[in-house]
Here is the input.
Amino acid sequence: MVARCEVGGPDCSDADPADGPARRQRHAPDLTAVRFPDDGQRQSLEMFKMYDWFPMVFFPFKIIVLGTGMFFAIKWHHDQAKKEKAKKNDEASGL
Here is the structure.
């Protein structure tokens, strides 16, 4: 087992002083073993987990809504142009 060395931590006793900070930076801290002193910090960590899924849900929803709106806006303008063209043809044939 590799000893985790933190500044001032109990596992630094076997660290070679010549290694310096390089030995401390070699191993990433184990974030799953973090203990929170109160429940408020745990809730704030869970809030950050919630924000991870929000873009994956919101952006596809946004693209679908805006795409649908653009489709109907183009369709409406196309239909209006078709109505005007038909109206002009009716007026021209009636003269």
Summary: Residues 39-94 form the longest helix (56 residues). The two ends are 98 Å apart (CA to CA). The helical segments are 21-25, 39-94. The chain has a mean pLDDT of 74.
